[in-house]
Amino acid sequence: MKEYKLFIDGEWIRSSDGQTFDDVDPTTLELIGKLQKASLEDVNSAVDSADHAFEKWSSTPAPQRAKILFRAARMLEERKEELARLLTVEMGKVLKEARGDVQEAIDITYYAAGEGRRLFGETTPSELPDKFCMTIRRPLGVVGLITPWNFPIAIPAWKIMPALISGNTLVLKPASDTPILSIELVKILEKAGLPGGVLNLVMGEGNIVGSAIVHHPKIRAVSFTGSLDTGKWILGEAAKEMKKVSLELGGKNPIIVMDDADLDLAVDGIIWGGFGTTGQRCTAASRVIAHEKIIMELQAKLIKRTKALRLGNGLLENVDVGPVINNSQLQKINKYVDIGKNEGANLVLGGKITKPLPGYFFEPTIFTDVTPDMRIAREEIFGPVVSIISASGLDEAIGIANSVEYGLSSSIYTANIRNAFKAIENIEAGITYINASTIGAETHLPFGGVKSTGNGTREAGTTAIEEFTEIKTVYIDYSGKLQKAQIDV
Predict the structure, then answer these.
(1) Would residue 248 show up in a list of annotated catalytic residues for this protein?
(2) What is the pTM of this model?
(3) 87 with 153: CB under 8 angstroms?
(4) CB 113 within 8 A of CB 63
(5) Which of 90, 282, 459, 467 is catalytic?
(6) Residue 489: pLDDT band by 50, 70, 90 thresholds?
(7) Candidates 90, 184, 248, 459; catalytic one
(8) What SS3 class is residue 209?
(9) Could you give phi then psi for residue 451, rounded to 5 degrees?
(10) Are 424 and 410 in contact, with CB atoms under 8 Å apart?
């Protein structure tokens, strides 16, 4: 049995009170490893370590910080297949998707390293003579990162790398269901030369470890990806001490299929968006809003394709869909299927827990005759459940798309350029795809949503630097006399 430790002040250590927890393979239910569970004392030590390291790390020139990230990116590349297989064992997603998860970590690490020679500010003319004006970016300080289980190396990397290149020091709490990939990522950064104390890793329950991170007075910012309810709580608690908060809180993402769409292409996108990662994505395509003229044909094609999906161990190249993460999530999905049936939706495929292996498997599920007011059409299920809703035209389809509280990703399949631009203009979402599914973030572009999906921040791209820096405005007056802006002489 492999033991995994906490990482505090550059040392791998056991928890101060000796508590541990188990990491289980969701496919086989076999024990993967035993992990140290951080105590409040451990969290305090991690924060103190990051606080102590901040002055030296933030004063290290950004291009020098970048060298460490470049080395880490190359190490991630060298270990890509090994890490992908470990990810499939720990989280369950199929191997081709696990490779993509690791590739995202590689890409954002290279991208953030490149920002080490940018970190741009602005210069602008002054309204007064002999005066220079500019802005610069400054790190926030000690930042708490709380990450989810569904992208166990990509999302930690999305947060860690921009935060590091910006000069912050960090305390990371990965999800308890998938902490090992974060541990491996920290090991890579340690080997790449990251100084002790700059990045600290603590594991454990959210109501203890996560709460301690949110409330600690030395933590100046919190970046969280997870559920809406937890995000609301974090925002409220952090506001009491005026901490900066970045939230990414999920979605109920629509794919609109118009009557002029390539239906085979649309089905490809629905399969990928709805059942990839077993539907456990904040960008999952859980709603298909189909034009009434083509809905029956689309449903037939989708059902036929979905029936052919193979469930099983994601390490096997011929498997399409792996398990869900744990029994709690399995039962939640099962509950929503019952809700859908009781609401009058038509269950045309799937809808049951299945056991191709001992783990937590749920059949890819399709509901038809769904109306926008049904709970299965409004609430995030986070499982392989797709609801098909009819619309008479584009305006109604966009209205249905906008009728939920979330606004992360969206998609429209159409051959009509007017339909595409109307969707871009009017769908309430942070991301809109044209003739592609709702999944697939490129690391040099901003990622995030509107409404209850978040609080206005964006991850990745240039906005990742904005998330982890503050702007300072600088005025240099070389006139040799007192000048008063906006004051008539």
Answers:
(1) yes
(2) 0.96
(3) yes
(4) no
(5) 282
(6) low
(7) 248
(8) helix
(9) 55, -135
(10) no
